Amino acid sequence: MLAKAVRRLEAAGVPDAPRDARRLLAHALGVAPGRLTLVLGDPVPDAAAEAFETLVTRRAAREPVSHLTGTRSFWGRDFVVTPDVLDPRPETEILIAAALEAPFARVLDLGTGSGCILLTLLAERAIAAGIGCDLSEAALAVAGLNRAALGLDERAELRPGDWFAALEADTGRFDLIVSNPPYIAASEMPALDPETRDFEPRAALTDEGDGLAAYRAIAAGAPAWLTPGGRLMVEIGPTQADAVSALFAASGLADVAVLRDLDGRERVVAARVPL
């Protein structure tokens, strides 16, 4: 069954077909992926075989594995994922690592989606609290599931709204603002892989313009919501470092820096409010 599924996924152009086939078979059998080898010689129950066939068919149509299994791992934790939110990606862990290099007590996550950034930061800092904002009520519902699963209901607040519009005058300031906003230009959308282009929420991918609209809004609003010395960190596209850095500098932010991911690509722009 596994070998047949691998051949089918390879024929459909699925990247790393053997890995995906194993994950889907483990899911259908209800075993941990790391234990699949131990049961490969066992007979497969009819229900599991039927479920696996359905999963392979959907994956061959390039539906993301996370949508098929319902979860995606991020910073060592499993997060609920649906078509209403972006998949948490390993590259975003660069932002997490940088944020954890300095202390923070209050964090704001703009465009929180699944909540993976906000909730990971709070899970790693037991004394911190924060707010996650998103224009999508459906995304906030997914974030709420992840918040409950991680036991963070008391420390993570989720609010509907577009960027800083979700905040109120008495919300107070933050010593850390983070975001992985829509940064793909509309002209770049057709070239994306089918898993992203056809199955993830378009509003979380592109601003339908040049890919910089979110950064303009964040740069304009962040200084008023950050404490003196407070940090701003955003994920960026591979060609946006100079443009986003210039926006941050023009807004009065200091110590603007570009952080690279493990592949050497410019991935995060960080800055802070002057003391």
Core attributes:
275 residues; alpha/beta; Rossmann fold; 2 domains; seven-stranded mixed beta sheet; two-stranded antiparallel sheet; 11 helices
Structure description:
- The protein has helices spanning 2-11, 17-29, 36-39, 46-60, 65-69, 93-99, 116-124, 137-149, 194-199, 213-225, 241-250; strands at 71-74, 77-80, 106-110, 129-134, 156-160, 174-179, 226-235, 254-260, 266-272.
- It is of the alpha/beta class and 275 residues long.
- It folds into two domains: 2-61, no CATH class; 71-272, Vaccinia Virus protein VP39 (Rossmann fold), CATH 3.40.50.
- The strands form two sheets. The protein has a seven-stranded mixed β-sheet with strand order 5-4-3-6-7-9-8, sandwiched between helices.
- Helix 1 runs parallel beside helix 4 (46-60), helix 2 (17-29) runs antiparallel to helix 4 (46-60) and helix 10 (213-225) runs parallel beside helix 11 (241-250).
- The longest helix has 15 residues, at 46-60.
- The chain starts with a helix and ends with a strand.
Strand content: 15-25%
Broad structural category:
alpha/beta
Shape: globular
CATH class of the largest domain: Alpha Beta
- Average pLDDT score: 96
Low-pLDDT stretches: none
Instruction: Count the beta strands.
Output: 9
User: Over the alpha carbons, how many angstroms does the gyration radius reach?
Assistant: 20 Å
User: Please, what is the CATH homologous superfamily of the largest domain?
Assistant: Vaccinia Virus protein VP39
For the sheet with most strands, the description reads: 7 strands, mixed
How do the SSEs run, as a string of H and E? HHHHHEEHEHEHEEHHEHEE
For this structure, the CATH topology of the largest domain is Rossmann fold
Helix content: 25-40%
Cross-sheet strand order for the largest sheet: 5-4-3-6-7-9-8
How does CATH name the architecture of the largest domain?
3-Layer(aba) Sandwich
Number of helices: 11
Euclidean distance between termini CA atoms: 62 Å
How many distinct domains? 2
